[in-house]
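Translate structure to sequence.
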């Protein structure tokens, strides 16, 4: 090949990469839309807020199932949980939908280098990427840093070995506390160290377009973060939510016992936590959010430093919401609004697309076709969502008026829920017989916190009938 031929090849490749936008996705675990950019003035989230200023902020974005793996598999395949067959943390999606094309696979097929790190597709993920950055064992990184905490866990591990404990029993026996603050550098925690690795990856991307996902673990339990982030919030001003009680008239099947939190030391095996512990948990959640916010800031600063901002689509989302005392519950695992609703920000380099906010009802499975449209790629037939491009062009565009989620319970019961502009309707169905065993309706016009189930109020019969018909359509997809 002659010098001129080589030069033309390089110029052609450079021109091609310049026409393709990069994609940077910030996936954050358990992040509810309690951020200052969403109106929560008490939160210290300056970096996410800055990102929001140049983004389209979706005020009513919903997950398809409020637990990590099903939600993430739905997003990265563009398919609803009933189509993926993934409803729990154990099912392997490559066994249920072996031919599905994930987002990173799709972008790799169309000339992108795909880079993944952290918590992205939960556990089964390395094979989906052209470059996987493993953060499982990072030198100097630990979940807990207080000497007394680490000594206690070491002692419990010795006891567990002596007792011959294994598997889940072993993990539960040696579990640490639900929260901790330590005066250590942020890189001593997973998300801080991972951000360093992600920054190094950005420094090496070169001219080839990239599709990169950085999966932050916090603010997932345990609520551990450097002390300086705890210090951003005054414990004396932290109170329990106003609706620290079960929704009136809600069926028992709609509730959960928050076993995820109970697995940590210092949390009772049953019954409520005491009020001081509850406030400490809320404090820890806030601190963890601010910790992740700082890492987002570091990553965005690196993107600017590398001169990549002008040609990079940036997306921030959470895999589900999180209860910190609302409905007298903790964690996720329900169909309530506070579990299903999440923050969603999309920032594009296209000057013809708007930055602002929209209250259109959107779903996370809409992201797959949206990113395809933004990158001018074909959308696979498997996708069941709708591209959000019309809303990015005009946030007042006519849009879907419903968003769907679901959550399973034991005994073969699935709860299907639909969010409408006026409220939320849920049917709990025994799948094998197709029998509705419980129903809920919450009128968001007068009860946005979903504190009273009014499904038996005759004034809502017509509306409930219509929403029930819509649920049946989605259930059969």
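Result:
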């Amino acid at each position: 090949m002659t010098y001129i031929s080589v030069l033309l090849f390089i110029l052609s490749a450079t021109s091609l990469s310049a026409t393709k936008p990069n994609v940077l996705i910030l996936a954050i675990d358990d992040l509810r839309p309690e951020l200052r950019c969403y109106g929560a003035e008490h939160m210290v989230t300056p970096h996410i807020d800055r990102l929001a200023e140049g983004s389209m902020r979706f005020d009513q974005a919903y997950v398809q199932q409020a637990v990590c793996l099903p939600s993430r598999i739905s997003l990265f395949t563009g398919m609803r949980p009933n189509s993926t067959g993934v409803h729990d943390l154990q099912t392997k999606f490559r066994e249920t939908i072996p031919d599905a094309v994930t987002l990173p696979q799709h972008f790799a097929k169309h000339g992108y280098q795909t880079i993944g790190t952290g918590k992205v597709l939960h556990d089964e993920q390395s094979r989906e990427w052209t470059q996987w950055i493993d953060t499982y064992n990072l030198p100097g990184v630990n979940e807990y840093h207080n000497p007394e905490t680490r000594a206690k866990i070491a002692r419990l591990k010795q006891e567990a070995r002596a007792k011959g404990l294994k598997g889940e029993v072993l993990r539960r026996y040696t579990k640490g506390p639900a929260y901790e603050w330590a005066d250590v550098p942020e890189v001593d925690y997973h998300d801080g160290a991972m951000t360093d690795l992600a920054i190094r990856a950005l420094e090496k991307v070169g001219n080839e377009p990239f599709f990169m996902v950085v999966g932050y673990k916090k603010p997932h339990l345990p609520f551990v973060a450097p002390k300086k982030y705890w210090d951003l919030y005054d414990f004396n001003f932290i109170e329990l939510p106003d609706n620290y009680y079960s929704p009136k008239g809600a069926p028992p099947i709609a509730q959960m016992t928050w076993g995820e939190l109970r697995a940590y030391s210092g949390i009772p095996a049953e019954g409520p936590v005491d009020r001081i512990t509850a406030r400490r948990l809320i404090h820890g959640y806030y601190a963890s959010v601010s910790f992740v916010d700082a890492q987002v800031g570091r990553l965005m600063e690196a993107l600017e430093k590398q001169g990549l901002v002008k040609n990079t689509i940036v997306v921030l989302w959470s895999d589900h919401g999180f209860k910190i005392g609302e409905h007298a519950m903790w964690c996720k695992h329900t169909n309530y609004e506070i579990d299903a609703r999440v923050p969603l920000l999309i920032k594009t380099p296209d000057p013809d697309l708007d930055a602002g906010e929209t209250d259109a009802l959107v779903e996370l499975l809409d992201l797959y076709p949206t990113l395809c449209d933004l990158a001018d790629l074909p959308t696979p037939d498997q996708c069941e969502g709708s591209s959000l491009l019309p809303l990015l062009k005009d946030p007042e565009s006519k849009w879907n008026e419903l968003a769907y989620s679901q959550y399973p319970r034991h005994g073969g019961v699935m709860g299907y829920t639909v969010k409408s502009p006026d409220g939320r309707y849920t049917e709990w169905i025994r799948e094998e017989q197709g029998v509705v065993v419980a129903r809920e309706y919450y009128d968001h016009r007068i009860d946005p916190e979903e504190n009273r189930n009014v499904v038996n109020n005759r004034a809502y019969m017509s509306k409930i009938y219509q929403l029930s018909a819509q649920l049946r359509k989605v259930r059969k997809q």
